[in-house]
Each structure stands twice: as structure tokens, then as C-alpha cells.
Amino acid sequence: MVNSVVVSPVELIKSRLQIQYEAKKAMSRYHGPVHCATEIIKTGGLRAIMQGMVPTVIREVPAYATQFYVYERCKEILTPAGQSTKDLGPMSLMCCGGTAGLLCWFTSYPQDVIKSRIQVDVTGQKYPRHSFLPDGGIVSCSKQIWKAEGWRGFWKGFSPCALRAFPANAAGFLAYETTAELLR
Fold it and tell me: What is the pTM of this model?
């Protein structure tokens, strides 16, 4: 959850910059990350920079719970009887990390789609907040995706994400384990 305080504004800025990527240069609203952040705050106040915070938390918590559980469980499974998980070689650690990253995204991808759509809503009014739940627009956004695109709408773009997830997390967890071992 703590991670979301940093991740949400950064991803808001990234998403806003990405949606203008295909626009003609003259039509670009933002000139870079600092300008984007400044404009968001200027037009909507400090609260606006946190647009998408609730969906980010709802994505991050199950994503990282899954990732670290799967990583540790895979290490246990691949460790021969009588040995320690610290004895695993680089290929085993990369396999564990890649699998953990892939399942992390599988667990959280629909939430990420919802979060991204809420964050690119510049007006903040396309996905109204629920009248009872403090959902940040999740219920409204989910209903709109389901109505327009069905279940596939929640998985748009998953293939490239999955293709990136395995090698990125394999390398990341190997780097972590190697660094931790060097520091011991």
C-alpha cells in the first residue's frame, strides 16, 4: 500500500504523456513529466495528482502478495531435500522470479486496465465515484468496460505485458539475490 503513494502519481504522469504520444506535436498538452505534473496540480490541485490512487492500491496489494508468495514457494519447490533455498543457482532463481512476475501480472492485470483508464480521464468525470463506496471510479469504469468490450476488455494488452514480465522479473530477482548474497 505504501508503494502506491509514489507509484500512483508517477503512473498518472506516465499515462497522460503516453496518451498524447500519437497526437500531433502542436496538439500535445504536456511538454514532459515536470510540465505534466505542474499542469495537473495547477488545474486540479494537489488532490488531482493522486487520481487513480484507490485503483493503484487495489492493484498493488494482490499483485505483490502474489509475487512474493509465488517467488518464495517456487524457491522451496526447486530446492533439493536437505539443502537451503540459498543454495539455488542463477537459472533456478531466474525461473522463480520470472514465474512470480508473470503470476503477479496475471493476478492484477484487470485492475491495472481499470487504473489506467481512470488515470487518463483528464476531466475526472468519465468514471464517477460510487455513491456509497470510496472506489475512485472503479465500479463505474468496470461497468463501462464490461458493457462495451466484455471480459476481453479487462485483458487488452496482456500479451506484451506477460512477455515483458517473465524476463524482467527473472533478472530483477536474480539481481536482488546476488546483491543480498554479496552484502552478507
Answer: 0.85
